[in-house]
Amino acid sequence: MLLELDERVQTVKKIIILALVALGAFAVYRKIQADRAELDLWTEATAASDS
Predict the structure, then answer these.
(1) Hey, which of 8, 14, 21, 23 has its CA 20 to 30 A from 31?
(2) From the centroid of its chain, how far is CA 9?
(3) Which pTM was predicted?
(4) Which uninterrupted H or E stretch holds 49?
(5) What pLDDT sits at residue 1?
(6) How confident is the model at residue 49 (pLDDT cuts 50, 70, 90)?
(7) pLDDT tens column, 7-48
(8) DSSP annotation of 51
(9) Rounded-to-integer distance, Cα 7 and Cα 22, Å
(10) Greatest Cα pair distance in the chain
């Protein structure tokens, strides 16, 4: 019975780690998208003032 509990604890730990990695990857993805949007806005604003 103790072995089953230990296996379950290990499984839960793996799931939590996987969820944290997924959240981290999502946060990086959102940051990249925000940076791209800001760069696009900056490019558009500076290009409009050049013409």
Answers:
(1) 14
(2) 26
(3) 0.72
(4) helix 2-50
(5) 74
(6) low
(7) 999 999 999 999 999 999 999 999 999 999 999 999 998 987
(8) -
(9) 23
(10) 75
Place of tokens 């604890």: 9
Q: Can you tell me which residue has the tokens 């730990």?
A: 13
Whose structure tokens read 């230990």?
6
**Amino acid identity for residue 34 in this structure:** A
Q: Which amino acid type is present at position 40?
A: D
C-alpha distance across the termini of the chain, in Å: 75
State both tokens at 47.
């290009």
